[in-house]
Amino acid sequence: MSATEIASKVRAGELNPTAVIGGAIALIEGADTRYNSVTRVLGPRAIGEAEALGRRLRAGEDVGPLAGVPFGVKDLFDMAGEVTTAGSIVLNENPPADADASVVRRLCAAGAIPVATLNMDEFAYGFATENAHYGVTRNPHDVDRLVGGSSGGSAAAVAAGLLPVTLGSDTNGSIRVPASLCGVWGLRPTQGLLPLEGVFPLSASLDVVGPFTASLDDLQLVFEVLADRAVGTPPDVEGLRIAQLGGWFARNMAPEMEQGVTRVLAHLRAADVVELPNVERARAAAFIITAAEGGNLHLPRLRARAAAYDPATRDRLMAGALMPATRILQAQRFRTWFRAQAHALFERYDVLVAPAVPGVAPRRDQPVIVVDGAEVPARANLGLYTQPLSFVGMPILTAPLTVEGLPLGVQLIAAPGREDRLFAVARSLESAGIAGCTLVPPQGRPGL
Predict the structure, then answer these.
(1) Cα gap 197→320, rounded to integer Å
(2) SS3 of residue 405 by DSSP
């Protein structure tokens, strides 16, 4: 059942919020052993909040647009009374959070109820959600394949039908990559639109938080709650100027992804192809800024407790901490220039279309993708199409394509503050049967 349906039935008295939350907890406890998307179940808090919501309903109070909706959060959002691990044992000795993260508070104020924290790459540094401390999160569509990351637990919990709404973060593609590989809706909102208070950072100048959902209606509703503003009247899609983002974004696509992008463009009657200059340098600059900011943040802990880190995370953070200042400054200067080039495209176009990932989720026992004819590690390279767009501040919606076989997704990109255009285009694709989420039954694949 979607978040919109749950909230409607709870407000109408057709569903008991305590039963809804109890059912969500039971489903997680019974089914998530197959996927390992959840790191903690917030049982006592969730049941207590559901009971309180029931009392408010009986008193005739307005309980909000997300009344009784269970949700989960990537384990880098502060939850009052819980230690925020950010997917690592390094922070286990930290005191529990005094308060929920700002965006969590906004969901709770709208009636939603947090029931779980969700698995992630350690400190959000990766595209696989293969966590040395909390285990591997498995793709609900095929548990032998990568789920994507770093918000893999958030995407998997939605794809498996365990939760209708989850929160993740996106620095270089950590919402868009797992949303595509798991076949769910995901949104990286405009940079700076949603508060980051109470969110453990990876790269403070790149980090954005956003939702995953199984339905487009839910994605818009949750975004409106998080942003504290309505999307407004959607623009007429036929009046929008839409183009394909080509060049770098048209290379290295698997045939099934190329076919999916072609279907999207044909439906939208988008014949124009535009290119951004120096995209490869943009991706390199994103790598540098992420490593430098992350390394600087973690340097005191690395000096004290380096052995406690996942080696793959530790080595990259240490390299970032040792990055020469000149290289960081050059990356920041290039970022300013590249942002201007990207924003200039929206003087001519309203929405751009690009693949979210090169192809379907790689197998976990063969975690590679092919880039320019060579096999490269998936953990570092699944953000091939997302990283170059991460540091220009634009909103990007990942739309899951209706395809046979394993999931794929496309990025819909608009100018800052124009999420309304993204939702309008996504709704057109959904209405045409080109985009949509297919959930995996909670019992998992036959034979599991």
Answers:
(1) 24
(2) coil
Domain range annotation of the chain? 3-227, 238-395
**Which pairs from 305-308 meet CB under 8 Å and 24+ separation?**
305/90, 308/88, 308/89, 308/90
3-state secondary structure (DSSP) of residue 146: strand
In contact, 442 and 32? CB cutoff 8 Å: no
Record the tokens describing residue 32, joined without a space. 């998530």
Amino acid identity at 129? T
Return the active site residues: 74, 150, 174
* C-alpha distances out from residue 234 to 290, 296, 336, 432, Å: 35, 42, 31, 17
Res. 443 pLDDT band, cuts 50 70 90? low
At 445, the pLDDT band (50, 70, 90 cuts) reads very low
- Rounded Cα distance between 83 and 97, Å, is 6
Q: What is the pTM of this model?
A: 0.97
Query: Exposed, middle or buried: residue 12 (CB in 10 Å: 0-12, 13-18, 19+)?
Result: exposed
- Looking at domain 3-227, its CATH class is alpha beta
3-class DSSP assignment, residue 353: strand
Residues forming a β-bridge with 70: 113
How many other C-beta atoms lie within 10 A of the C-beta of residue 56? 16
- Name which CATH class applies to 238-395: alpha beta
Torsion sign (Cα): 48, 51, 55, 61: positive
Residues facing 273 on adjacent strands: 244
Angstrom distances, CA of residue 188 to CA of 55, 167, 212, 308? 35, 11, 10, 31
Instruction: Tell me how far apart the alpha carbons of residues 383 and 177 are, in angstroms, rounded to a whole number.
Output: 7
Q: How far is CA 46 from its chain centroid?
A: 23
Cα separations (Å) of 14 from 2, 10, 200, 364? 15, 6, 38, 43
Which region holds residue 183: left if phi is over 0, alpha if psi is between -120 and 50, else beta?
left
Q: How is residue 143 written in tokens? A: 């548990």
Per-residue pLDDT tens digits for 245-290: 999 999 999 999 999 999 999 999 999 999 999 999 999 999 999 9
SS3 of 168, please?
strand
How far, in Å, CA of 328 to CA of 325, rounded? 5
Rounded Cα–Cα distance for residues 107 and 115 (Å): 12
Q: Please choose, from the candidates 125, 297, 118, the residue with its C-alpha nearest in 3D space to the C-alpha of residue 204.
A: 297
CA atoms lying within 13 Å on the CB side of residue 158: 38
Q: Helix %, strand %, coil % for the chain, to 5? A: 40, 15, 40
User: DSSP readout, 34-46?
Assistant: GT--EEEE-HHHH
